[in-house]
Design goal:
heterodimer, A: 8 helices, 42% helix, B: alpha+beta, Glutaredoxin, 46% helix
Amino acid sequence: MATALHAILAISPACSADEPGERVEDLPAGSAVPCLGGHAEACLDPSATEALLASSRHVRKEYRLELDGAQWLPTLLALDSPFYVREQRLTCALRFGDGIDQCNYLMEMVLSQDGGAQRRVSFAKATPLEGAESEACIAYADCTARIRIGSHVPVPRSVTTPDFAILLVMQANSPTLTPEFESKTPQLEGLRVDFLRGLLGDFEKAAVALRREGDMGDRELVYSLESLEQFDIEYLRLRIAELERGD
Amino acid sequence: MRSWKRWLVSGLLCGGMLAAAARYLLMDVGHWISRDTLVLLASHDCAFSRDLFSQINLSADLGSQIQLVPIDRGGGRSPAVFEMCDAALAQLSSQDVWQVRFLPRSTACHALVEYGNEMHRAHFRYYPAWMLDQRPIEDDALEASLGERGIEHDQSNNTLWLPSKGYPEQRRNAKIVAPPADPDDPLAFAVGHTIGW
Protein backbone atom coordinates (compact mmCIF):
# COMPACT_ATOMS: atom_id res chain seq x y z
CA MET A 1 0.00 0.00 0.00
CA ALA A 2 2.79 2.39 0.95
CA THR A 3 4.61 1.58 -2.27
CA ALA A 4 1.48 2.30 -4.33
CA LEU A 5 1.01 5.59 -2.49
CA HIS A 6 4.61 6.56 -3.15
CA ALA A 7 4.16 5.79 -6.80
CA ILE A 8 1.05 7.98 -7.01
CA LEU A 9 2.79 10.82 -5.16
CA ALA A 10 5.77 10.53 -7.45
CA ILE A 11 3.63 10.67 -10.54
CA SER A 12 1.18 13.35 -9.49
CA PRO A 13 3.49 16.38 -9.76
CA ALA A 14 4.21 15.41 -13.35
CA CYS A 15 0.60 16.07 -14.35
CA SER A 16 -0.58 19.59 -13.91
CA ALA A 17 -3.38 21.61 -15.43
CA ASP A 18 -0.99 24.55 -15.56
CA GLU A 19 1.28 22.89 -18.09
CA PRO A 20 1.49 24.07 -21.71
CA GLY A 21 -0.98 21.56 -23.13
CA GLU A 22 -3.89 23.63 -21.90
CA ARG A 23 -3.47 25.94 -24.85
CA VAL A 24 -4.42 23.29 -27.35
CA GLU A 25 -7.01 21.32 -25.40
CA ASP A 26 -9.60 21.51 -28.17
CA LEU A 27 -7.35 19.99 -30.80
CA PRO A 28 -8.38 16.61 -32.24
CA ALA A 29 -5.49 14.87 -30.52
CA GLY A 30 -7.01 11.91 -28.75
CA SER A 31 -6.69 11.82 -25.02
CA ALA A 32 -3.34 13.51 -24.44
CA VAL A 33 -2.69 15.00 -21.02
CA PRO A 34 0.00 17.49 -20.02
CA CYS A 35 2.94 15.67 -18.53
CA LEU A 36 6.57 16.45 -17.68
CA GLY A 37 6.61 19.55 -19.85
CA GLY A 38 5.17 17.63 -22.76
CA HIS A 39 2.17 15.43 -23.40
CA ALA A 40 1.33 11.81 -22.67
CA GLU A 41 -1.50 9.33 -22.92
CA ALA A 42 -1.63 9.17 -19.15
CA CYS A 43 0.45 10.33 -16.25
CA LEU A 44 3.94 8.86 -16.37
CA ASP A 45 6.53 8.00 -13.80
CA PRO A 46 8.89 11.02 -14.00
CA SER A 47 12.09 9.20 -13.13
CA ALA A 48 11.45 6.35 -15.56
CA THR A 49 10.48 8.76 -18.32
CA GLU A 50 13.46 10.99 -17.70
CA ALA A 51 15.74 7.95 -17.80
CA LEU A 52 14.23 6.97 -21.15
CA LEU A 53 14.62 10.49 -22.56
CA ALA A 54 18.22 10.66 -21.37
CA SER A 55 19.04 7.81 -23.72
CA SER A 56 16.99 9.08 -26.68
CA ARG A 57 18.13 7.89 -30.07
CA HIS A 58 18.84 10.79 -32.45
CA VAL A 59 17.44 8.90 -35.43
CA ARG A 60 18.19 11.45 -38.16
CA LYS A 61 21.80 11.68 -37.05
CA GLU A 62 22.13 7.92 -36.73
CA TYR A 63 20.62 7.48 -40.18
CA ARG A 64 23.24 9.76 -41.68
CA LEU A 65 26.33 8.85 -39.69
CA GLU A 66 26.10 5.40 -38.15
CA LEU A 67 27.08 2.18 -39.88
CA ASP A 68 23.67 0.61 -39.24
CA GLY A 69 21.86 3.96 -39.58
CA ALA A 70 19.93 2.90 -42.70
CA GLN A 71 17.63 0.85 -40.44
CA TRP A 72 15.97 4.12 -39.36
CA LEU A 73 14.76 5.02 -42.85
CA PRO A 74 11.15 3.76 -42.41
CA THR A 75 10.90 5.56 -39.04
CA LEU A 76 12.15 8.82 -40.50
CA LEU A 77 9.94 8.59 -43.55
CA ALA A 78 6.88 7.93 -41.39
CA LEU A 79 7.58 10.93 -39.18
CA ASP A 80 8.60 13.21 -42.06
CA SER A 81 5.57 12.42 -44.20
CA PRO A 82 3.08 15.27 -44.70
CA PHE A 83 0.36 12.65 -44.24
CA TYR A 84 1.50 11.96 -40.66
CA VAL A 85 -1.11 13.49 -38.26
CA ARG A 86 -1.96 15.78 -41.15
CA GLU A 87 -5.30 17.27 -40.07
CA GLN A 88 -4.05 18.02 -36.58
CA ARG A 89 -0.81 19.52 -37.89
CA LEU A 90 -2.75 21.86 -40.16
CA THR A 91 -4.90 22.86 -37.20
CA CYS A 92 -1.72 23.68 -35.23
CA ALA A 93 -0.55 25.83 -38.15
CA LEU A 94 -3.86 27.66 -38.34
CA ARG A 95 -3.90 28.39 -34.65
CA PHE A 96 -0.25 29.09 -33.91
CA GLY A 97 1.69 29.27 -37.18
CA ASP A 98 0.85 32.79 -38.18
CA GLY A 99 3.87 35.09 -38.17
CA ILE A 100 6.46 32.35 -37.60
CA ASP A 101 9.44 32.73 -39.90
CA GLN A 102 11.37 29.69 -38.74
CA CYS A 103 10.79 27.58 -35.65
CA ASN A 104 13.51 25.10 -34.70
CA TYR A 105 12.83 22.70 -31.88
CA LEU A 106 13.71 19.34 -30.37
CA MET A 107 10.96 16.74 -30.46
CA GLU A 108 11.41 13.96 -27.92
CA MET A 109 9.08 10.99 -28.13
CA VAL A 110 8.62 7.80 -26.16
CA LEU A 111 7.55 4.91 -28.38
CA SER A 112 5.76 2.06 -26.66
CA GLN A 113 4.89 -1.48 -27.65
CA ASP A 114 1.17 -2.14 -27.85
CA GLY A 115 1.08 -5.53 -29.54
CA GLY A 116 0.94 -4.20 -33.08
CA ALA A 117 3.66 -4.13 -35.72
CA GLN A 118 4.38 -0.48 -35.05
CA ARG A 119 5.11 1.49 -31.89
CA ARG A 120 2.64 3.91 -30.33
CA VAL A 121 3.74 7.43 -29.35
CA SER A 122 3.01 7.52 -25.63
CA PHE A 123 4.86 10.72 -24.73
CA ALA A 124 6.01 13.72 -26.78
CA LYS A 125 7.71 16.92 -25.74
CA ALA A 126 8.86 19.88 -27.84
CA THR A 127 11.68 22.18 -26.71
CA PRO A 128 12.52 25.20 -28.89
CA LEU A 129 16.20 25.50 -29.74
CA GLU A 130 18.18 28.52 -28.66
CA GLY A 131 17.08 31.56 -30.62
CA ALA A 132 13.67 30.12 -31.45
CA GLU A 133 11.84 30.92 -28.25
CA SER A 134 9.17 33.24 -29.61
CA GLU A 135 5.72 32.76 -28.11
CA ALA A 136 4.32 31.59 -31.43
CA CYS A 137 7.13 29.07 -31.93
CA ILE A 138 6.74 27.67 -28.40
CA ALA A 139 2.99 27.28 -28.88
CA TYR A 140 3.30 25.77 -32.36
CA ALA A 141 6.02 23.33 -31.31
CA ASP A 142 4.04 22.27 -28.24
CA CYS A 143 0.97 21.75 -30.39
CA THR A 144 2.87 19.51 -32.82
CA ALA A 145 4.04 17.44 -29.83
CA ARG A 146 0.56 16.96 -28.46
CA ILE A 147 -0.96 15.77 -31.72
CA ARG A 148 1.51 12.89 -31.93
CA ILE A 149 0.16 11.12 -28.87
CA GLY A 150 -1.48 7.85 -29.87
CA SER A 151 -0.05 7.86 -33.41
CA HIS A 152 1.91 4.85 -34.65
CA VAL A 153 5.44 4.69 -36.04
CA PRO A 154 7.51 1.82 -37.49
CA VAL A 155 10.80 1.09 -35.73
CA PRO A 156 13.73 -1.17 -36.63
CA ARG A 157 13.62 -4.83 -35.59
CA SER A 158 16.78 -4.30 -33.61
CA VAL A 159 14.79 -2.29 -31.06
CA THR A 160 13.44 -4.79 -28.58
CA THR A 161 12.81 -2.83 -25.38
CA PRO A 162 9.10 -2.25 -24.62
CA ASP A 163 9.55 1.52 -24.34
CA PHE A 164 12.30 3.59 -25.87
CA ALA A 165 12.80 7.23 -26.77
CA ILE A 166 13.83 9.00 -29.93
CA LEU A 167 14.53 12.63 -30.67
CA LEU A 168 14.26 14.68 -33.82
CA VAL A 169 15.41 18.19 -34.56
CA MET A 170 12.44 19.84 -36.22
CA GLN A 171 12.72 22.78 -38.54
CA ALA A 172 9.34 24.36 -39.24
CA ASN A 173 9.57 26.98 -41.94
CA SER A 174 7.27 29.71 -43.09
CA PRO A 175 6.08 28.97 -46.64
CA THR A 176 8.16 31.92 -47.80
CA LEU A 177 11.32 30.05 -46.77
CA THR A 178 10.50 26.84 -48.62
CA PRO A 179 12.47 26.66 -51.87
CA GLU A 180 9.56 25.28 -53.86
CA PHE A 181 7.29 28.12 -52.81
CA GLU A 182 9.72 30.96 -52.38
CA SER A 183 9.05 34.03 -54.51
CA LYS A 184 5.87 32.49 -55.86
CA THR A 185 3.49 33.54 -53.14
CA PRO A 186 3.79 34.36 -49.45
CA GLN A 187 0.77 32.26 -48.52
CA LEU A 188 0.24 28.64 -49.43
CA GLU A 189 -3.48 29.05 -49.77
CA GLY A 190 -2.71 31.45 -52.61
CA LEU A 191 -0.88 28.79 -54.62
CA ARG A 192 -2.41 28.29 -58.01
CA VAL A 193 -3.20 24.81 -59.22
CA ASP A 194 -1.14 25.28 -62.37
CA PHE A 195 1.88 26.18 -60.23
CA LEU A 196 1.39 23.01 -58.20
CA ARG A 197 1.06 20.98 -61.39
CA GLY A 198 4.40 22.40 -62.53
CA LEU A 199 5.88 21.47 -59.18
CA LEU A 200 4.43 17.97 -59.46
CA GLY A 201 6.09 17.62 -62.87
CA ASP A 202 9.40 18.73 -61.32
CA PHE A 203 9.03 16.19 -58.51
CA GLU A 204 8.25 13.39 -60.94
CA LYS A 205 11.24 14.27 -63.10
CA ALA A 206 13.48 14.43 -60.04
CA ALA A 207 12.30 10.99 -58.91
CA VAL A 208 12.99 9.48 -62.35
CA ALA A 209 16.44 11.11 -62.44
CA LEU A 210 17.29 9.83 -58.96
CA ARG A 211 15.93 6.35 -59.71
CA ARG A 212 18.08 6.25 -62.84
CA GLU A 213 21.12 6.58 -60.59
CA GLY A 214 20.49 2.96 -59.65
CA ASP A 215 22.86 2.02 -56.88
CA MET A 216 22.90 5.14 -54.76
CA GLY A 217 25.57 4.83 -52.14
CA ASP A 218 24.54 8.12 -50.55
CA ARG A 219 21.90 7.81 -47.86
CA GLU A 220 20.74 11.39 -48.25
CA LEU A 221 19.90 10.74 -51.89
CA VAL A 222 18.11 7.54 -50.90
CA TYR A 223 16.13 9.55 -48.37
CA SER A 224 15.23 12.17 -51.01
CA LEU A 225 14.12 9.55 -53.50
CA GLU A 226 12.07 7.59 -50.97
CA SER A 227 10.42 10.81 -49.75
CA LEU A 228 9.50 11.76 -53.29
CA GLU A 229 8.17 8.34 -54.16
CA GLN A 230 6.44 7.53 -50.91
CA PHE A 231 4.68 10.79 -50.14
CA ASP A 232 5.85 14.06 -51.70
CA ILE A 233 4.37 13.30 -55.13
CA GLU A 234 1.24 11.76 -53.65
CA TYR A 235 0.75 14.71 -51.32
CA LEU A 236 1.00 17.20 -54.18
CA ARG A 237 -1.61 15.22 -56.09
CA LEU A 238 -3.86 15.35 -53.05
CA ARG A 239 -3.39 19.13 -52.68
CA ILE A 240 -4.12 19.68 -56.36
CA ALA A 241 -7.28 17.58 -56.09
CA GLU A 242 -8.34 19.49 -52.98
CA LEU A 243 -7.79 22.85 -54.64
CA GLU A 244 -9.71 21.72 -57.71
CA ARG A 245 -12.62 20.70 -55.49
CA GLY A 246 -12.38 24.06 -53.72
CA ASP A 247 -11.50 22.60 -50.28
CA MET B 1 21.16 82.39 -50.93
CA ARG B 2 24.68 83.39 -50.19
CA SER B 3 27.23 82.11 -52.62
CA TRP B 4 29.04 79.86 -50.09
CA LYS B 5 25.71 78.17 -49.27
CA ARG B 6 25.06 77.58 -52.95
CA TRP B 7 28.46 75.99 -53.28
CA LEU B 8 27.84 73.83 -50.24
CA VAL B 9 24.47 72.58 -51.51
CA SER B 10 25.85 71.98 -54.99
CA GLY B 11 28.83 70.16 -53.51
CA LEU B 12 26.63 67.93 -51.37
CA LEU B 13 24.36 67.12 -54.31
CA CYS B 14 27.31 66.31 -56.54
CA GLY B 15 28.92 64.27 -53.80
CA GLY B 16 25.73 62.28 -53.29
CA MET B 17 25.36 61.65 -56.99
CA LEU B 18 28.98 60.62 -57.30
CA ALA B 19 28.63 58.26 -54.35
CA ALA B 20 25.50 56.70 -55.88
CA ALA B 21 27.24 56.35 -59.24
CA ALA B 22 30.31 54.81 -57.61
CA ARG B 23 28.16 52.40 -55.66
CA TYR B 24 26.29 51.47 -58.83
CA LEU B 25 29.50 50.90 -60.76
CA LEU B 26 31.26 49.08 -57.94
CA MET B 27 28.58 47.01 -56.30
CA ASP B 28 26.18 46.10 -59.08
CA VAL B 29 27.25 42.52 -59.69
CA GLY B 30 25.23 42.44 -62.91
CA HIS B 31 28.00 44.63 -64.34
CA TRP B 32 30.77 42.30 -63.22
CA ILE B 33 29.67 39.44 -65.44
CA SER B 34 29.77 39.70 -69.20
CA ARG B 35 26.43 39.28 -70.92
CA ASP B 36 27.42 36.22 -72.92
CA THR B 37 28.84 34.28 -69.97
CA LEU B 38 26.76 31.47 -68.54
CA VAL B 39 26.13 31.80 -64.82
CA LEU B 40 25.72 28.90 -62.43
CA LEU B 41 23.91 29.72 -59.18
CA ALA B 42 25.07 27.12 -56.69
CA SER B 43 24.38 26.46 -53.04
CA HIS B 44 26.91 24.83 -50.73
CA ASP B 45 24.22 22.69 -49.10
CA CYS B 46 23.11 21.08 -52.37
CA ALA B 47 25.04 18.04 -53.56
CA PHE B 48 24.39 18.68 -57.27
CA SER B 49 25.40 22.34 -56.92
CA ARG B 50 28.63 21.47 -55.19
CA ASP B 51 29.45 18.83 -57.74
CA LEU B 52 29.01 21.22 -60.69
CA PHE B 53 30.78 23.98 -58.80
CA SER B 54 33.88 21.89 -58.18
CA GLN B 55 34.02 20.69 -61.81
CA ILE B 56 33.94 24.28 -63.07
CA ASN B 57 36.37 25.45 -60.44
CA LEU B 58 38.88 22.75 -61.38
CA SER B 59 38.67 23.25 -65.14
CA ALA B 60 40.08 26.35 -66.80
CA ASP B 61 38.09 25.50 -69.95
CA LEU B 62 34.80 25.35 -68.11
CA GLY B 63 35.72 28.24 -65.85
CA SER B 64 36.33 30.55 -68.79
CA GLN B 65 32.77 30.01 -70.03
CA ILE B 66 30.75 29.60 -66.87
CA GLN B 67 30.76 32.10 -64.02
CA LEU B 68 30.14 30.65 -60.57
CA VAL B 69 27.84 32.56 -58.25
CA PRO B 70 27.27 31.17 -54.74
CA ILE B 71 23.91 31.52 -53.07
CA ASP B 72 23.36 31.31 -49.34
CA ARG B 73 19.72 31.06 -48.44
CA GLY B 74 20.43 30.42 -44.79
CA GLY B 75 22.41 33.65 -44.54
CA GLY B 76 24.90 32.21 -42.06
CA ARG B 77 27.90 32.69 -44.36
CA SER B 78 29.50 29.42 -43.35
CA PRO B 79 33.12 28.65 -44.30
CA ALA B 80 31.76 26.64 -47.25
CA VAL B 81 30.12 29.79 -48.62
CA PHE B 82 33.36 31.77 -48.33
CA GLU B 83 35.19 28.94 -50.04
CA MET B 84 32.80 29.14 -52.97
CA CYS B 85 33.01 32.92 -52.91
CA ASP B 86 36.79 32.83 -53.16
CA ALA B 87 36.61 30.58 -56.21
CA ALA B 88 34.01 32.80 -57.88
CA LEU B 89 35.92 35.99 -57.11
CA ALA B 90 39.15 34.45 -58.42
CA GLN B 91 37.35 33.76 -61.70
CA LEU B 92 36.21 37.38 -61.91
CA SER B 93 39.70 38.66 -61.05
CA SER B 94 41.23 36.54 -63.80
CA GLN B 95 38.81 38.21 -66.20
CA ASP B 96 40.07 41.61 -65.11
CA VAL B 97 36.86 42.67 -63.44
CA TRP B 98 38.29 45.82 -61.82
CA GLN B 99 35.57 46.10 -59.19
CA VAL B 100 36.65 42.80 -57.63
CA ARG B 101 40.24 44.00 -57.35
CA PHE B 102 39.13 47.25 -55.85
CA LEU B 103 36.70 45.94 -53.22
CA PRO B 104 37.68 44.19 -49.97
CA ARG B 105 37.12 40.44 -50.21
CA SER B 106 34.29 40.35 -47.66
CA THR B 107 32.44 43.22 -49.37
CA ALA B 108 32.80 41.64 -52.80
CA CYS B 109 31.69 38.27 -51.42
CA HIS B 110 28.67 39.80 -49.73
CA ALA B 111 27.66 41.60 -52.94
CA LEU B 112 28.11 38.44 -55.00
CA VAL B 113 26.08 36.22 -52.65
CA GLU B 114 23.32 38.81 -52.31
CA TYR B 115 23.16 39.05 -56.10
CA GLY B 116 22.92 35.24 -56.32
CA ASN B 117 20.19 35.15 -53.66
CA GLU B 118 18.22 37.89 -55.37
CA MET B 119 18.41 36.26 -58.80
CA HIS B 120 17.47 32.90 -57.35
CA ARG B 121 14.52 34.30 -55.43
CA ALA B 122 13.25 36.10 -58.49
CA HIS B 123 13.48 33.30 -61.02
CA PHE B 124 13.94 29.81 -59.61
CA ARG B 125 12.47 27.10 -57.46
CA TYR B 126 15.57 24.88 -57.25
CA TYR B 127 19.30 24.94 -57.42
CA PRO B 128 21.66 24.54 -59.15
CA ALA B 129 20.21 27.12 -61.52
CA TRP B 130 21.54 28.60 -64.72
CA MET B 131 21.34 32.12 -66.13
CA LEU B 132 22.48 34.06 -69.14
CA ASP B 133 22.48 37.84 -69.29
CA GLN B 134 20.62 38.01 -65.95
CA ARG B 135 17.78 35.87 -67.27
CA PRO B 136 16.97 32.30 -66.25
CA ILE B 137 17.75 29.45 -68.63
CA GLU B 138 14.91 26.95 -68.64
CA ASP B 139 15.78 23.27 -68.15
CA ASP B 140 15.02 22.35 -71.74
CA ALA B 141 17.21 25.17 -73.09
CA LEU B 142 20.28 24.42 -70.98
CA GLU B 143 21.79 21.77 -73.24
CA ALA B 144 21.63 24.16 -76.21
CA SER B 145 23.20 27.03 -74.25
CA LEU B 146 26.03 24.76 -73.14
CA GLY B 147 26.35 23.28 -76.64
CA GLU B 148 26.84 26.75 -78.15
CA ARG B 149 29.93 27.00 -75.96
CA GLY B 150 31.23 23.56 -76.89
CA ILE B 151 30.18 22.00 -73.58
CA GLU B 152 28.24 18.78 -73.14
CA HIS B 153 26.26 17.84 -70.05
CA ASP B 154 26.12 14.15 -69.18
CA GLN B 155 22.98 14.09 -67.06
CA SER B 156 23.50 10.50 -65.96
CA ASN B 157 26.22 11.62 -63.57
CA ASN B 158 25.99 15.42 -63.63
CA THR B 159 29.19 15.77 -65.66
CA LEU B 160 30.13 18.81 -67.74
CA TRP B 161 32.69 18.03 -70.43
CA LEU B 162 34.15 19.33 -73.67
CA PRO B 163 34.06 16.87 -76.60
CA SER B 164 37.15 18.61 -77.98
CA LYS B 165 39.07 17.53 -74.85
CA GLY B 166 37.54 14.08 -74.37
CA TYR B 167 35.46 12.73 -71.51
CA PRO B 168 37.15 13.26 -68.12
CA GLU B 169 38.11 9.77 -66.94
CA GLN B 170 37.79 10.65 -63.27
CA ARG B 171 34.08 11.33 -63.84
CA ARG B 172 33.30 7.89 -65.29
CA ASN B 173 32.24 6.48 -61.96
CA ALA B 174 31.42 9.77 -60.28
CA LYS B 175 28.69 9.67 -57.67
CA ILE B 176 26.85 12.63 -56.26
CA VAL B 177 27.34 12.76 -52.53
CA ALA B 178 25.59 14.89 -49.97
CA PRO B 179 27.73 17.61 -48.42
CA PRO B 180 29.32 16.51 -45.15
CA ALA B 181 27.26 17.37 -42.11
CA ASP B 182 28.71 19.34 -39.23
CA PRO B 183 28.11 17.05 -36.23
CA ASP B 184 28.00 20.07 -33.91
CA ASP B 185 25.26 21.82 -35.86
CA PRO B 186 21.87 20.53 -34.63
CA LEU B 187 20.18 21.79 -37.78
CA ALA B 188 22.45 19.60 -39.91
CA PHE B 189 20.24 16.69 -38.81
CA ALA B 190 16.89 18.42 -38.87
CA VAL B 191 13.63 17.17 -40.29
CA GLY B 192 11.97 20.09 -42.02
CA HIS B 193 8.40 20.92 -42.84
CA THR B 194 6.47 23.89 -44.13
CA ILE B 195 3.98 25.39 -41.71
CA GLY B 196 0.46 24.96 -42.98
CA TRP B 197 1.37 22.78 -45.93
